[in-house]
Fold:
Amino acid sequence: MKRIGSLLQDRLALLSLFIITSTLLAGIFAPWIAPNDPEEVHMELRFASASWEYLLGNDHLGRCVLSRLIYGIRPSVLGVLAVLAISVGIGTAIGFIAGYFKGKLDALLMRICDIMLSFPGYVMTLGIIGILGVGLQHILLAFVLMKWSWFARIIRTSVMQYADAEYVKFSKTLGIGSLRIIWKHIVPVTVPVIAVTSSSAFSSMVLQLSGYSFLGLGVQAPHAEWGMMLNEAREVMFSRPELLLAPGITTILFVSAVHFFTDALQVALDPKLGSSGRKKQRKGRFQTANLQGSEVA
Amino acid sequence: MLIVDRVDKSYRKGGFFSRERQQVLKNISFHYEQGECLGIIGESGCGKSTLGRLLLGIEKPESGSILLKGKKAGGNRAGSGSISAVFQDYTSSINPYFTVEQAIMESLGIGRDRSSRRDNHAKVDRLLKHVGLDPHCRTKYPHELSGGQIQRVCIARAVATEAPCILLDEAISSLDSSVQMQVLELLKRLKEIDKLGYIFITHDIQAAAFICDRIMIMRNGQIEEIVSTTQLMDVQSPYAKKMLQMVIS
Ligand SMILES: Nc1ncnc2c1ncn2[C@@H]1O[C@H](COP(=O)(O)OP(=O)(O)OP(=O)(O)O)[C@@H](O)[C@H]1O
Ligand SMILES: [Mg+2]
Structure:
């Protein structure tokens, strides 16, 4: 609790938290918040600039950009968030079991993960779409199938690192049960790793989802999605660059907020970083960058 | 109190699917009486820590038995009658997310019904003083303490379990020599005040001779010889003789 308190003193963290929560709320309550119908076409308002009725102007079909942005939160953020929660959940469970208990179970689970990881992600996703048909939910399903093993691997590695620590050995000599040891000693030290990997996976998934939408495999045309809005605006990139700005800035802003928040969370949770001020916070950011790099590879 | 009878232990060598096993402990048998201090010495890799883990019940022997007051070690043996431990690596011996107080509380809360918070608070104070630490340390995190202070906290934590025997696995090896001496003095004092017994694993014969009543010399996973410290000079086996010679010269 004390540590959460220090998190709330960090202005950047607070701002990020505000951006994240307001985005989520806006997505959930989109029908009440959006000023207009996101799919209503007004050909006479094509490329109209901002007005009081359409605060961010209109796109190439005269639809309200702001409303499309708000409705776009649903697939772009909420959908990906749900996928993330599920795959991180599965990955965490498997990672903890494999990393803590080791032995045969670990070997078995990790071979399964290896098999899952050896499928090329994009081809698998295309395969799933080919079997189940085009649609957002099928892409999200493919994401879950592809990502859990990746999380399981990373979490297992960091659990293993701590499962042999001397304080875990000491707790074992006290006769404390495995579940309690995991909860008290291993979960807290792995939370930063989980948070950082999830936040970088989150941004990459948002971008991938946009990519599939661009190929016409994800969100279907009239519905709004950030990546698709970008692609629609791309066609008029030189004549109407401002149309790129709205979805682009929103995506960047949200993804950065997620990054900043997980960094701040990491700093706040770690007593070593927390007490000695903010200059070490850079380290957290550096690690984030590292992890992202390893994910791309 | 502790009876170890023909214990063997081996680990899988190489990859997961390899059949080859490395025998780490062979036919270990000895007795340990309550309140005595038994030193276990031997060169690196001879299986001292492995034996320690078996005694603590963290791992199971492959064959043979370890009986603690007539019961198998490693069962659900919370509370008194068990062995507590202090380990070598002080950088990881306290959870970095725990304060000193929380670390000690962990072993206070075991095997007893929840005594009141204030009660425990006073106990932590007493334990910290007992091992020569300032009670202000209670709110500190391990990275804010020195190695010697952390080892003292670990000793306090081990004492808090009220186990009659504490296993110290190279507990002083990573400290510098003056702090080593302080910790040894502390252990000696606790031994007299609390009637504690130790199993003292080390490769430092002098430290072992300083604090132990009996010394067990190990070599390649086997017991070479057990002698009492007063008769340390007339060991029988050639290996032990050679080892002592090296220390004296
Ligand atoms: N978990 C394990 N898996 C495989 N082999 C192990 C394991 N633990 C120990 N060993 C092997 O057992 C042997 C004895 O190790 P141990 O840690 O008991 O030695 P030690 O006497 O404590 O040495 P030191 O004085 O360096 O601490 C070593 O050869 C080591 O490689
Ligand atoms: Mg050892």
